[in-house]
Amino acid sequence: MLNVDTIKNGLVIDHIKAGCGPQIFHWLGLDKASFTSALIMNVPSKKAERKDIIKIDNIINIDFSVLGFVDPNICVNIIKDEKIVRKIRMELPDRVENVIKCKNPRCITMTEHYVPQVFILADRKKATYRCEYCDAFYTAGKIE
């Protein structure tokens, strides 16, 4: 039987699309953290067939736009004294910076490394973004 202790003060990142948990876990640097954290994968879900969950026994700063980019269905629960005090629901951000890299070899971001990688939401329904500089398209869902 799986037993993951209660979070006293921290975060629970819930409703992560099954299989995307490790990507977020590593992006947050939790694999190198000195505090307790847990990645639980393929948990049965009522909304989706399966989901991943990340429990963090610490309050850390998170760029919520990145979480929304990876999966706009994610919910972040803030825990204080073992109780949920706030729920933050994600959505696709209008803009992401330095989350994905433009694949266009002619894009200025490929040659001028000081230029930030900026993508603007082009189509919310299709979850597509376009490079601010060269208009190359990228589909949301994977951070680099």
TrEMBL record:
SUPFAM superfamilies reported for this sequence: Aspartate carbamoyltransferase, Regulatory-chain, C-terminal domain (SSF57825), Aspartate carbamoyltransferase, Regulatory-chain, N-terminal domain (SSF54893)
Tell me where in this chain the Aspartate carbamoyltransferase regulatory subunit C-terminal domain is found.
95-140
What GO biological process terms does the UniProt entry carry, in alphabetical order?
A: 'de novo' pyrimidine nucleobase biosynthetic process; pyrimidine nucleotide biosynthetic process
Q: Which InterPro entries match?
A: Asp_carbamoyltransf_reg_N, Asp_carbamoylTrfase_reg, Asp_carbamoyltrfase_reg_C, Asp_carbatrfase_reg_C_sf, Asp_carbatrfase_reg_N_sf
GO CC term, one of those recorded = aspartate carbamoyltransferase complex
Query: GO MF terms on file?
Result: metal ion binding; transferase activity
The Aspartate carbamoyltransferase regulatory subunit N-terminal domain extends over 2-90
What domain of life does the native source organism fall in? Bacteria
- Keywords attached to this entry: Metal-binding, Pyrimidine biosynthesis, Transferase, Zinc
Task: Tell me the PANTHER family matching this sequence.
Answer: ASPARTATE CARBAMOYLTRANSFERASE REGULATORY CHAIN
Q: Which NCBIfam families match?
A: PRK00893.1-3
Protein's name according to its UniProt entry = Aspartate carbamoyltransferase regulatory subunit
Q: Which organism is it from?
A: Treponema berlinense
